[in-house]
Amino acid sequence: ILSEDGARNVRYAPYGGNTGFYYIKHNTRTVWFTTSFVYVSGDLMKRAKSHQQIFVQLASEHAMMYGLKVKTLSKTHELLLGGYEYHMHGSK
Fold first, then answer.
1. Higher local confidence (pLDDT), 52 or 4
2. pTM summary value
């Protein structure tokens, strides 16, 4: 589960999630995803200059190839202030 970032450009598609908060449930698919992320993210982050972009791209790849389920909380989630709400309305 990712928090909503509000970014709707192709760089963060298709989830628009913010990696400032994410929740990962332990199972075989998520272990493979996080292991893959650790192994491939370094060089890719240097090129993209974005942890978030690489995380979302890899999550999308794993969703298509391995059935990883990825969800993004809504912008106006009651319990968690996402990146979009934080930057638009402050952290009051």
1. 52
2. 0.69
